[in-house]
Amino acid sequence: MLAEDRLLSHEETLLLLQQAKQGVEQAKEDLFTHNVALVKSVVKKFTGRADYDDLFQLGCMGLVKAINNYDASYNVRFSTYAVPLIMGEIRRFLRDDGIIKVSRPVKDLYSKAMVVKNKLSTQTGVEPGIDEIANELECDPEDIVQAMEAARMPASLNAAVREDSGNDIMLSDCIGVEDDSESAVDRVMLRELLTTLPPRERQIIVMRYFLEKTQTEIARQMGISQVQVSRMESKIMKKLRNAVGTAS
Amino acid sequence: MLENSMRLEFLAISRNESFARVAVGSFFSQLNPTLEELADVKTAISEAVTNSIVHGYKNKGGTIIIECVLLNKSIAVTVQDYGVGIENVEQAKQPFFTTMPGDERSGMGFTVMEAFMDGLEIVSRPGEGTTVSMVKTVAENEGEEEQACKQAVRQDNAG
User: Above 0.85 for ipTM, yes or no?
Assistant: First the structure.
């Protein structure tokens, strides 16, 4: 085991990364331990904007991503590659800080539960049960159920909130912005928000994501064109991404 | 083998929809579901309760009774009202079908319940009321060893 405070040379890092890619757990651990200082220095830039432990945890997730995804052909130092990923995790989390007036402990618990859920999923490869999440947060599962309820916002309230100009309202890191597929949309949030959609939009989302119908099939059933269905679907997904959640 | 049951009786107003979701969700959480499975159950409850409020009682109020039983890894829920009932259950289950045409309803209530739960039964008598029964089973997601560890941790926390 390498001494924790020793800086790794580029060559040593590359070797460990190669081993990590091959699944050597010790290599992953060493990489992580030797780069935790990176996380700390990035987190320092965001102090005051959120709880330190939350930021640190997110930063670590970014570091783990970097370790898993780094490719030797990138031709940059590992730290150069890792820092944007670490920052990215933190930025996404902060960008989601909505202006929802929910009591702070409840809001915190919901966002913490989502962070823990993602962390445990990444770590174990399977979706955690609510017990595992509650255990990590040292609360009762029932408290989490209550906190999740606070994440639901009725569609009408969204409109009122959006009228506040200048407020950057973004959804939690649970809903991706990269593409329109369901995998990028957190399945938990999709269900929570389903009951708040207006009728036409609900029909389309249920048919597309839970009955897995094609746009053409939906068009036929609704008596509209496939192009119209496609446009409405994009609009709805965009709306869901901008929907206000307690997020962080 | 886990065995538990509860019964809730409340006023059929939309204000109580959230309460019903959280109550059933909390009860269901005893089976250690994933957050997704939890959201499934809460959403199905929303749909059933809304049906009773809007269709069963035509928004004029009444009583809804929810009963839940936990058995091993499953929850069985019944949502019952004493409202107008459903004339044609098969027709009601079809996506898009609604007895309130116009732009107000999506006609997706039963479709959502069926999609999110592992079983759905509807018993109804026009003029007397409707009972919706649903089952959800949590997926096997851990081995005996993990379960034993969790049990030990739980006992530790409780002690």
Answer: no
